[in-house]
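Recall that a protein's primary structure is simply its ordered list of amino acids. Everything else, from secondary elements to tertiary packing, is in principle encoded there. The following example makes that idea concrete.
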Amino acid sequence: MIDRHTPADAHAAQLRVYSRMGPERRVELAFEMSERARELAIETIRSLAPALSYAEARHLLWRHLLGEQLFEAAFPDVPPSRSSSGDIEAVWQRARAEVDPDES
């Protein structure tokens, strides 16, 4: 997948670096990038909804990624979000607009 914000020559260089890595390192890097992406999402959620604690923002992200039913099964001890679904959707709309203004 090519990011439209990444120049083609930079993307090609990145692919060359990845191809020289062993499979274990590529998997390790994928986990690191995934973790960083989640942390960036949590930071963005908190910047858009400053009243949320880190844990609440993290739970909001996982609710979004997993869906309500799976989230409740995976995190049975987490109380329902204190925000209404409309407020949650508003946070996601603002987050999408901040990440990619052309897509909103």
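Residues 33 and 103 are 23 Å apart (CA to CA). The mean pLDDT is 84.
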